Structures are given as structure tokens and as C-alpha cells.
Amino acid sequence: MWEIYDELIELIPKDLVIKDFVAGLNWFLVESIGTGMAMTPKEGNSYLHTAGNVVGMKVYDAAKLIKSWSNYEAALGLAAINSVINTSNNFEVLSGISMKKQKNVNDFEYMKDKIKGKKVAVIGHFPDLEPLAEICKLSILERIPQEGDFPDPSCEYLLPEQDFVFITAVTLINKTLPRLLNLSKNAYVTILGPSTPMTKCLYKYGINMLAGTVVTDRNKVWCLIKEGGRHEFFNNGALMVKIEIDEINTFSKS
């Protein structure tokens, strides 16, 4: 069950140090090679035992916290991992495409032609999902369900029947991702959201597409997050990026 987590941790050089860290209302940010993001957990204990000592911490040691059962510690771990993986340079090597040529649209818009008339499940209630229900048979699964959403346990029944499954990368933090991938093995699977680690090592686990975020203007994004920003960083210091399994540059190491 820990294989995904262990692979992500081992991508991190052991000598890198965290240069800066912020635990914002909506996002954690870690700066090392680049800026890594992870969604601020909405459930669980909000205590960080590393508070006051994160800056200067080895990124590798912080990355190991992704296996913590404290969601806050796990979010720090994921942001630390993403600070190494989700850089413009790494993504250009992975995709073989310049950042300037990336289609900066959300994944649901990008995939709308493929999912027309299909059974589609989305893990996590993302903004502006409702229009999707007009073009596909949509099921939204959410830990804290809104009206019309299915509760978490429904995944055991719904996911094996789907054609497409979109899974929030927050499931890495709460440790539900391995089970969700197992339930979704008959579907085309996308991991999405700014918390997504953009690395080819994830594709072996039955993932077909990664749709994440690369910070291109550190100062803009840090200012927004420190002041409580939610999604204002899109087109304002960060870009949406995506890559399917058959688009990977085979010469990429990460």
C-alpha cells in the first residue's frame, strides 16, 4: 500500500534544504528547487509538530511526512515533494513541450469531448462541475457531501462501473488513493489538482493522466497564498499543466 509514497519520497535528493514554508488558509507552500503546493487539509488535527523548524529542514525528511496519519504533516510532505518535482524545467523535460505551449485550461474542459455520453466519477467536489452533468453521466463523490454528491463509501460500488474517474490529489494526503486506484482499474484515471506530483513514476499504478500546477512566478503565488487566496494564482503566477501516459518523454528521469 505504501509503494506510491515510497517512490515519491525516493525522488527527493537527500541534501536539499527547505528555503521557505507557509501554511495558508487553503494551501501549503514549500520552497526548495521550486515552489510545491498541497491543499491545506480540511479535516483532522491541525497541529504541525515541525512548526518553527520547517525552514532549514531537509526536503527529504519533510517528504517522508507524506506517510504520516496527521493530515497536516502529510500535506507538508506532499508540498515538499512537489517543490522538487513540479518545476518548469522538470515538466518541460517530462513532456518534451515548452511551458509556453501548454494548454492552460482545467482538466474537465480539456477532456470534455472524450467524456461525452460516458460514465464519469469525480472524487472531490471541484468548482464548476455542474455543467459536466449535461454531457455525461456524472457522479461526484465527496467526504463532506454537498447536495447531489455521493458520500465516500459509495466509491466501492460506483467506481468499478465508470468509464472515466477523476481523483483529487488530496487523496495522497488522506491515504485513500491506493484503494481508489484499485477500484478504478477499468476506467481512464486522472489525478488532478495543484497537489498533484507531476512525475512519470505514478503511471505504473493505473493512472492515465496527471493534471497539476507549476508555479512560474514565486512572489505572486506566495503573496496570494499568505493572504488567504484560493484559486487566484491560476494565470497569475501559476499554470495548469497536464500530460497523458502516451505523451511522456521516455528520456525523463523523474
UniProtKB/TrEMBL annotation:
InterPro entries: DUF364 (IPR007161), DUF4213 (IPR025251). It comes from the Bacteria. Residues 109-236 form the Putative heavy-metal chelation domain. Residues 5-85 form the DUF4213 domain. SUPFAM superfamilies: Dhaf3308-like. Gene3D superfamilies: 3.30.390.100, 3.40.50.11590. It holds the Pfam family DUF4213. This is Heavy-metal chelation domain-containing protein. It comes from Clostridium scatologenes. The lineage of its organism: Bacteria, Bacillati, Bacillota, Clostridia, Eubacteriales.
